[in-house]
């Protein structure tokens, strides 16, 4: 497999590997889980609604008869839910990869909070920051990978999250873009800190381009766009793609051995196309912004990543095999 050739229908054999995917009840998470299971992986599918999670499992096992999967309730906006889910995963054994996909794509019109944190920031950023920290040790034991789902919006709008909780100046669009700036910055910074600590886990950021429900196959209970949505989205066909195709960047970032930690991956033409390495927006690599966001994650969630424990739990040979961090 090379960077030039990538086909979701011809993924590497993932038999024996376990991946946790957050937000699998629809959209990118659903299709990412499907792609992984078709390649033989065992998937831990998470969602916050038990009925929708059960429907997603029934649908996935129907579409992939040989599927190996289990479900787990997880609401990334709530720290208690994150910690309970992480404890369950740690008790179940091996974990090769973590796809941090769940999120609020259409934020509420007015600012809402949960556990004292702004809803979009809590769901898209803080919950995943805490989950990755809570699962760092099993990931290190398997020399695994975490993938953070960013957005092309970070390259189009410069929203510095000085006030990540948007106590003042809340708008739905700003909440979304700031959450993706934070996600990208934390994903890149995580890789730097993991290498510095000698932890054999890679951290990668991926974005799906402009992937719309109206260009995605209809699946009962999973993707049911209205006729008007189909019409409008099909008008945008030259610069959009299905969520099934959008998941390709996420899956490649998660499983391709030629993808390096500290990289950003997305569609070739930004909005659509096969996955390729991209360049992260300067704002997401600003040391001051990154340090501020890491402190925010720690303080808001009360979670400190166990770098030293994870490094001690890895074998000496695994630490020696860690490649140097490429430029981004």
UniProtKB/TrEMBL annotation:
Q: Which UniProt keywords apply?
A: Oxidoreductase
Q: Which Gene Ontology MF annotations are present?
A: oxidoreductase activity
Every copy of the Ketoreductase domain together lies at 17-165
> InterPro entries given for it?
KR_dom (IPR057326), NAD(P)-bd_dom_sf (IPR036291), SDR_fam (IPR002347)
Gene3D superfamilies in the record: NAD(P)-binding Rossmann-like Domain
Instruction: Spell out the Pfam families in the cross-references.
Output: adh_short
Q: Which family does it belong to?
A: Belongs to the short-chain dehydrogenases/reductases (SDR) family.
| PANTHER family, alphabetized | NAD(P)-BINDING ROSSMANN-FOLD SUPERFAMILY PROTEIN, RETINOL DEHYDROGENASE
Q: What is this protein called?
A: SDR family NAD(P)-dependent oxidoreductase
